């Protein structure tokens, strides 16, 4: 089968993050011919440094990567066409799809949510207003009734072998050294290693303050992100990649923005991960560590219901006190109420319970079929 995936980078890295992961998996694990159309190769290059932003055609990791130009040149559609996040295909391409025999299976890969309505809308058809084409809405999700989550089939094996030893010469130690994190050694101290990837966040100063005053040292590794002005305001200095600032018991270190597979290694290495958006949020769950989610803000606080639905799912099976602490800190991190030192300490007090629960949650999700396999099954049934 030949697949076409269309990616419009609206903002940030989530659009290309998801598309690139899907494309790589379809090509690498399933041996499919995948053509990935991307309108912003500079953003793509951040996640995959081998991408050349000046090339209109190139191959990366077995994927045929094309720049999606405004004036879209004619191209013959493949057997499956994946439009991502309602990015709207070029008119000429839609016409070519309608003329193809057989017509391609047309999918819109939508956003991830744990809300209950997702199961009802998943895999629903939507006829084209003019052309003899039907688009199917494919919704990622956390249950068997949805499209599932992106997960490579070697992911857990790689994570396990990465964490196999805790000695200085372990893969984790080598990785952190390569990142230029000397202060992460040795690992036998009680320092909490935290990764921080978020949007600008008014609660960040309160959180950093709680860390700097806490009774346990915190080493926070932050790749460049929209929260950098917040970090610099707190550190009272400019921060460049490689810089570290010490404030009380907190060490704040700016690390480079990593290629996608290395970002997984960072998540596997840390005790707590702050993730955001969609793809990093899912990867933090595969890392099986306690995690806090900075959700992408939507109009009229629509994201609050989305956050709540996820917390309901994640906290199921946790006793009430840690579940309440998780909800309180998660909402405060997303702008509902301040983060106080007391709130943070209460959350941290449940850290062992969260760790155990994050492992259970990961195992439970692992038992489900991954998104790529569900998508392929769905498309095969329509061909
Ligand atoms: O970047 P995000 O906020 O992206 C999105 C977009 O805003 C999108 O429009 C919106 O719809 C969606 O959020 C909800 O967050 P996300 O989804 O986590 O994407 C980040 C990607 O960047 C992910 O694939 C992981 C990757 N990444 C790296 O490869 N290296 C890094 O160092 C880091 C920090 C992230």
Structure at a glance:
The protein is 40% helix and 17% strand.
Written overview of the protein:
The chain is α/β, with parallel strands linked by helices and 383 residues long. It has helices at 14-30, 41-47, 91-99, 117-121, 155-162, 171-178, 204-213, 228-235, 260-269, 279-286, 302-315, 320-333, 341-349, 351-366, 371-382; strands spanning 2-7, 33-38, 57-60, 63-67, 80-84, 105-109, 125-127, 134-138, 192-196, 218-222, 244-247, 250-254, 272-276, 291-294. The chain has 15 helices and 14 strands. Strand 3 and strand 4 form a beta hairpin. It is globular and about 65 Å long. Bound molecules: 2'-deoxy-thymidine-beta-L-rhamnose.
Give the key terms.
Rossmann fold, about 375 residues, eight-stranded mixed sheet, 14 strands, six-stranded mixed sheet, binds 2'-deoxy-thymidine-beta-L-rhamnose, globular, alpha/beta, 2 domains
SSE topology:
Elements lengths: L1 E6 L6 H17 L2 E6 L2 H7 L9 E4 L2 E5 L12 E5 L6 H9 L5 E5 L7 H5 L3 E3 L6 E5 L16 H8 L8 H8 L13 E5 L7 H10 L4 E5 L5 H8 L8 E4 L2 E5 L5 H10 L2 E5 L2 H8 L4 E4 L7 H14 L4 H14 L7 H9 L1 H16 L4 H12 L1
Parallel strand pairs: 1-2, 1-5, 2-4, 5-6, 6-8, 9-10, 9-13, 10-12, 13-14
Antiparallel strand pairs: 3-4, 7-8, 11-12
Helix pairs in contact: 7-8, 7-13, 11-12, 12-13
Bound molecules: 2'-deoxy-thymidine-beta-L-rhamnose.
